């Protein structure tokens, strides 16, 4: 097999309880591994990455970049994922790409929900505690309408957006909000989780735009990194 003409990218997603790895080439996934058992990242990730790198080598594919989901998310999960991504980059010379977890979470909604109206807004949510979530709001082109913030959810939290648009809520923080968000424009999608296999459209775009991170200094976007309810980084 000859080497792919498009970039080969290793994808790592460990921001939530799900641990997943994917390898993409020629604009599609060629390998995917997923572990949904909580607290399995430290054991599963190394095995998955080794499988992906072995697959790439056996198919004469050179990994050009490593894309890692960079938060917000679990401190431990992000630390494990980013450390692994950096290690692969240091060892292979691959570029490092950081992808906001909430955008990764939005990709399957855009790919598999054809019923979304053009004016729809997306609100991916990561569960925090009690009635708090970490959320952002995007349009259908994944342009940021409102950046990532720590939201204490009540019936008025997203009212300004709901008054003007249908808003789709999803992610592991959305289920607990159904009883609070009862606006007629609110839509809830079940079963949407961030997966490495959903990272390649965002990673391919980052490759085309040459948006890479400094491997030595890059740090993920931990959930604790909020000041007065606003994130330190503009994700």
Report on this structure.
This protein is an alpha/beta fold. Helices cover 26% and strands 27% of the residues. It is built from five helices and twelve strands. It has a five-stranded mixed sheet, with helices on both faces. The longest helix has 18 residues, at 41-58.
Question: How would you describe this structure in keywords?
Answer:
235 residues; alpha/beta; five-stranded mixed β-sheet; 5 helices; 12 strands
Provide a brief overview of the structure:
The radius of gyration is 18 Å and the shape is globular. It is an alpha/beta fold. It has five helices and twelve strands.
Walk me through the topology.
Layout: E1 9-13, E2 19-25, E3 28-35, H1 41-58, E4 65-69, H2 75-92, E5 95-99, H3 101-112, E6 121-127, E7 132-138, E8 144-152, H4 159-162, E9 167-170, E10 186-188, H5 200-208, E11 226-227, E12 230-231
Parallel strand pairs: 1-4, 4-5, 6-9, 9-10
Antiparallel strand pairs: 1-2, 2-3, 6-7, 7-8, 11-12
The biggest beta sheet, please? 5 strands, mixed
Amino- and carboxy-terminal Cα gap: 39 Å
- Determine Rg (CA atoms, Å): 18 Å
The residue fraction in helices comes out at 25-40%
Order of helices and strands: EEEHEHEHEEEHEEHEE
Sheet/helix structural class: alpha/beta
Ranges with pLDDT <50 over ≥5 residues? 1-5
Q: State the helix count.
A: 5
Shape: globular
Average residue pLDDT: 92
Total strands: the figure is: 12
- Spatial strand arrangement across the major sheet: 3-2-1-4-5
* Strand residues, percent: 25-35%
């Amino acid at each position: 097999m000859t080497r792919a003409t498009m970039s080969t990218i290793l994808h790592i997603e460990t921001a939530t309880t799900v641990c997943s790895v994917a390898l993409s080439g020629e604009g599609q996934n060629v390998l995917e591994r997923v572990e949904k058992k909580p607290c399995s990242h430290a054991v599963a990730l190394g095995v998955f990455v080794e499988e992906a790198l072995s697959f790439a080598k056996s198919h004469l594919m050179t990994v050009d970049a490593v894309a890692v989901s960079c938060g917000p998310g679990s401190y431990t999960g992000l630390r494990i994922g980013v450390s692994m991504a950096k290690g692969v980059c240091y060892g292979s010379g691959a570029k490092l790409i950081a992808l906001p977890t909430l955008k990764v979470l939005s990709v399957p909604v855009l790919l598999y929900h054809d019923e979304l109206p053009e004016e729809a807004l997306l609100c991916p949510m990561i569960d925090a505690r009690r009635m708090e979530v970490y959320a952002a709001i995007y349009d259908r082109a994944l342009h940021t309408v409102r950046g990532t913030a720590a939201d204490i959810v009540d019936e008025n939290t997203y009212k300004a957006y709901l008054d003007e648009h249908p808003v789709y809520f999803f992610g592991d923080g959305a289920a607990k909000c159904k009883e609070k968000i009862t606006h007629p424009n609110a839509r809830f999608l079940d079963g949407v989780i961030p997966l490495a296999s959903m990272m390649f459209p965002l990673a391919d775009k980052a490759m085309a735009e040459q948006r890479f991170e400094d491997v030595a200094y890059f740090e993920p976007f931990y959930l604790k990194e909020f000041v007065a309810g606003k994130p330190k980084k503009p994700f």
